[in-house]
Amino acid sequence: MRERMLAGDAYIADDPELEEASYAARDLMSAVNATDPREKPLRRRLLEELLGAIGEETEIRPPLYVDYGSHLSIGARSFVNFGLVALDVAAITIGDDVQIGPNVQLLTPTHPVEPGPRRDKWEAAKPITIGDNVWLGGGVIVCPGVTIGADTVVGAGSVVTKDLPAGVVAVGNPARVVRKV
């Protein structure tokens, strides 16, 4: 079932294999979130175990919330402020030198519009890619399948529903480009 999920195909989230992977991630996530701010080496070790990848000099301030963790990769020298929700049902790839404000949500899952499959707990997912040197302001929501180009700034509270090119400022709901950087 995990292969189907990662391929973007429909899957059942309550599948026992997926549930077990999610429980293991929750245990590590809880340990990360319980670390003392002064215990940076311990937090780093736990994050390296939880995440697919974490670059050098990257800081993630807890709390951090993930579905699996292993599908989330963050580049070097990035900063993630308090309260990131990264629903990594599909891959979430974050570049180098990225700044993520508090309470940002990166949401890869999709759900059927039709009531029957939704009631039967079918879902799918689309990957998210955040380019190098992107700044996501506080409370930004990035929807499934979105790519944000390098050097782009997304204003606080924006909802990104479609790809954004490199080197722009985007704001609003839905986020729209308001100028070039």
How many helices in DSSP terms?
A: 4
* Helix and strand element order: HEHHEEEEEEEEEEHEEEEEEEEE
Low-pLDDT residue spans? none
Q: Write down the Rg.
A: 16 Å
- Strand content is 25-35%
Average the pLDDT over all residues and give the rounded result: 96
The major pleated sheet works out as: 7 strands, mixed
Report the top-level CATH class. Mainly Beta
CATH superfamily: Hexapeptide repeat proteins
Question: How many structural domains in the coordinates?
Answer: 1
Strand order of the largest sheet: 3-6-9-14-17-19-20
CATH topology-level fold name:
UDP N-Acetylglucosamine Acyltransferase, domain 1
Q: What structural class do helix, strand and pairing data support?
A: alpha/beta
Number of strands: 20
State the distance separating the first and last CA atoms: 42 Å
Shape: globular
Structure, explained:
By secondary structure, the chain is α/β, with parallel strands linked by helices. It has a single domain, classed as Hexapeptide repeat proteins (UDP N-Acetylglucosamine Acyltransferase, domain 1), CATH 2.160.10.10. The chain is built from 4 helices and 20 strands. 35% of the residues are buried. Helix 2 packs antiparallel against helix 3. The strands form 4 sheets. The chain has a 7-stranded mixed beta sheet, with no helix packed on it. A 5-stranded parallel beta sheet has the order 2-5-8-13-16, with no helix packed on it.
